[in-house]
Structures are given as C-alpha cells and as structure tokens.
Amino acid sequence: MRQSETESDEKKVLAANEAFYRALEALNQEKMEAVWWHEDWVQCLHPGWPLIRGWEQIRASWENIFRSTTQMTVSISQPFVHILGESAWISCVEQVTISLEGDFVTSRVQTTNIFVRRKGEWKIVHHHTTPIPGSGLLEASHSVQ
Asked: How many domains does one find in the chain?
C-alpha cells in the first residue's frame, strides 16, 4: 500500500472514531446507529458490564445509557491507529465526564475501538472500555468544572 493510501485510510478511520464519540456526546441514538455495522457478531464492553454481542443488544445498551444520562463529554488521548486490510483499530485513553442526577462524575478508561471497511466505509464493530488500574474516580461534584 502506498504512503498516501495509508494516510488517507488512517484519516478515514480517525473520522469514523470521531463520529462515534460525537454520537456518544450528543446522546443521540440515530447518530450512534449510523456509526456501527448492524451485525449479530458486533460486540461492546462497557466498563463494569458483561460483554454484549449483536447489534440489537448493543443498540439497547446505548438507549439505556442515553436515557439515564443528562450530559456527557468525552476526550481521548494517546490514540494509536493500526490498519490491517479491511480492519482497523484505535486504542486510546478516554476521559469521560457524565451528569447523572445532578452530579458530574469524571473517570478515565482504556479503550479499543475496532472498525471494518465495506464498500469504502469504515464502521465500528467492537467497542471495549476498561477502567485504568489505579486511576479511580477523578472527580465528583455538583458543578461543572
């Protein structure tokens, strides 16, 4: 693969990853549905949850999260992108701040997002987040920082 093709694919995977996080921050089910392949074999592992397999169960998990969350911001750091044929993954650290029942809670998690390309379009097939050992809860307050 030529350098320009690799750079173009990397930009497209990063854009697909960014679209996932914008859907998450918007708490928008329609946008979330647009960034996933709707297959029985796609998987999602939210922190503290059992593994979810299949688009219908993943869709329901996002609906539950969006219904119980009034606000969410996510920033990523340390992104690592790797592309192998029609598959790609990004590992990163997420800093997530959510508002639940008037409290703001911020935590850091290690994340891997796996994407598959079909007909030139990259969509997520696996989202895996896990708490970073020793990071714990960064803050909990009644006001926005």
From this structure: 1
Stated pTM of the model = 0.87
Residue 59, token pair as written in the block: 């869709």
Find all residues with CB under 8 Å of 18, minimum gap 6, and list them: none
**pLDDT class for 136, splitting at 50, 70, 90?**
low
CA distance 122 to 6: 14
Are 91 and 80 spatial neighbours (Cβ–Cβ below 8 Å)? Answer: yes
pLDDT of the residue at 105: 87
Please return the burial class of 39, using the count of CB atoms within 10 Å of its CB with bins 0-12, 13-18 and 19+: middle
Quick one: pLDDT at residue 130? 92
Domain with 60 in it: 3-141
The reported pLDDT for the residue numbered 81 is 97
Return the CATH number at 32.
3.10.450.50
CA–CA separation, 106 and 113 (whole Å): 20
Q: How far apart are CA 11 and CA 81, in angstroms?
A: 10
φ and ψ at 37, to 5 degrees? -80, 135
